[in-house]
Amino acid sequence: MDRNTDELCARKSFSKRKLRTPVDVEDVRREVAIMRHLQNSVSIVSLRDAYEDDGAVHLVMKLCEDRALFDRIVVRGHYSERAAAVLTRTIVEVVHLCHQHSVIHHDFKPGNFLFANKKENSLL
């Protein structure tokens, strides 16, 4: 929970035991830097804070309250052409924004796109 706003947050943690090489450590640093750089976009989860303790590095982010696009596709079975076009537009806008900032995401897939909330018209 964000102590300033009482808003629920999500935490992504990287175990320091798994950060074995300098490349592993640099990857986490790069992820934090990229998230800070892109946090002004409505379609990219905003990073609230990053900190570390003895066992892990933690990223505190805005909470996406609903499931991933992949899960919604499985539950729904399919999307209409119009609904799919809306989602595809958001995905393309995110890719474009990343590329404008010289960021290349190597794992674009429906499981990595989250909905902000459980409403049918939720932002992706």
Tell me about this structure.
The protein has 124 residues and is an alpha+beta fold. The chain starts with 8 loop residues before the first strand and ends in a 24-residue tail after the last helix. The chain contains 3 helices and 3 strands, in the order E-H-E-E-H-H. The protein is 35% helix and 16% strand. The protein has 2 domains: 9-62, Phosphorylase Kinase, domain 1, CATH 3.30.200; 69-112, no CATH class. Strands 1-3-2 form a 3-stranded antiparallel beta sheet, with helices on one face. It has helices spanning 22-37, 69-76, 81-100; strands at 9-15, 47-52, 56-62. Residues 1-124 form the Protein kinase domain.
Give me some keywords for this one.
3 strands, 16% strand, 124 residues, 3-stranded antiparallel β-sheet, alpha+beta, Phosphorylase Kinase, domain 1
Instruction: Determine Rg (CA atoms, Å).
Output: 16 Å
What is the CATH third-level topology name of the largest domain?
Answer: Phosphorylase Kinase, domain 1
Query: Could you spell the SSE succession in H and E letters?
Result: EHEEHH
Share in helix: 25-40%
Main sheet?
3 strands, antiparallel
Q: What oligomeric state do the depicted chains represent?
A: single chain
Number of helices: 3
CATH C-level category of the largest domain = Alpha Beta
- Strand percent estimate: 15-25%
On the 0-100 scale, what is the average pLDDT?
89
User: CA-to-CA gap between the ends?
Assistant: 22 Å
Shape summary:
globular
The class by helix and strand makeup works out as: alpha+beta
Give the domain tally: 2
CATH homologous group name of the largest domain: Phosphorylase Kinase, domain 1
Biggest sheet, spatial arrangement of strands: 1-3-2
Instruction: Say how many strands there are.
Output: 3
Architecture per CATH nomenclature, i.e. the level-2 architecture of the largest domain: 2-Layer Sandwich
The unreliable regions are none
